[in-house]
Design brief:
By secondary structure, the protein is α+β, with helices and mostly antiparallel strands. Helix content is 28%, strand content 24%. It is an enzyme of class 3 (hydrolase).
């Protein structure tokens, strides 16, 4: 079931979304050569604590997961696409890092992700990240009353494929509200004009994921959480929580 949010509820979700944005900004600022992923997780925890927010990631255990998630951020490095568990790994010059973070505050959830490089960036990584952001922007632009879920999926997939990148099948965005994951699902590829109609008050987490090699294959790492590219190529992830309003899409996790 899809819950349509009131204007007041969307305003409250914006407050939660700003906490997520602040956490991601703080994590990116702290990320540097020699900094560990666990240290980045602690940076995000402090932002959540200061805001009086909790994490929907911490302790989360969907059906596929062998253990509850142990952190408040997903930290995916280089060939990791999404769901990376923060470890003692220390960032190296040229690493490509994707950070996904959520917050719960006042009964509402927010979810967002960014990708960036550490130290000296490789041009191919810069292009990959820029394309992920363009795909996200295209998906958001399609999130308007009267369109359908397939229009968002088609907009995202068209940007990714035209740039020559792979799109991992079976993973995409989702509805969000009182819980982090709600209906409907939002694929990263699809046919325009198909799927659920978009209505005023729907709130979606839109999140393209790109694989640099152009291939779509991935596998789960031994930790049972981290999804990695099959061919070792790098990946990028971008995400915003977006409300569908009569005035157009409203980004609730804007940084």
């Amino acid at each position: 079931m899809v819950e349509l949010k009131t204007d007041k509820s969307i305003d409250e979700m914006y407050v939660t979304g700003q906490v997520v944005g602040q956490a991601l900004t703080a994590v990116q600022k702290a990320a540097d050569v020699g900094v560990s992923l666990l240290e980045l997780d602690e940076v995000a925890r402090e932002v959540l604590r200061a805001a009086g927010a909790t994490s929907p990631f911490l302790g989360y255990r969907p059906s596929f997961a062998p253990t509850p998630f142990p952190a408040v951020i997903c930290a995916s490095v280089n060939d990791a696409i999404v769901h990376g568990i923060p470890t003692g790994y220390r960032l190296r010059d040229g690493d490509l890092v994707s950070i996904d973070c959520g917050a719960e505050l006042g009964g509402w959830a927010g979810d967002s992700a960014i990708s960036f490089t550490v130290g000296r960036a490789r041009q191919e990584d810069v292009r990959l990240i820029e394309t992920a952001e363009r795909a996200l922007a295209a998906g958001i632009e399609a999130a308007v009353v009267g369109n359908r879920i397939g229009d968002i999926a088609h907009a995202i997939g068209s940007v990714c494929r035209s740039a020559g990148y792979g799109v991992p099948d079976g993973f995409g965005g989702h509805g969000i509200g009182r819980k982090m994951h709600e209906d409907p699902g939002v694929p990263n590829e699809g046919r325009p004009g198909r799927g659920m109609p978009l209505r005023r008050g729907m709130v979606l987490a839109i999140e393209p994921m790109l694989i640099a090699s152009g291939k779509d294959g991935y596998h789960a790492a031994p930790d049972g959480w981290t999804l990695c590219t099959n061919d070792g190529s790098r990946a990028a992830h971008a995400e915003h929580t977006v409300a569908i309003t009569d005035a157009g899409p409203r980004i609730l996790t804007a940084r």
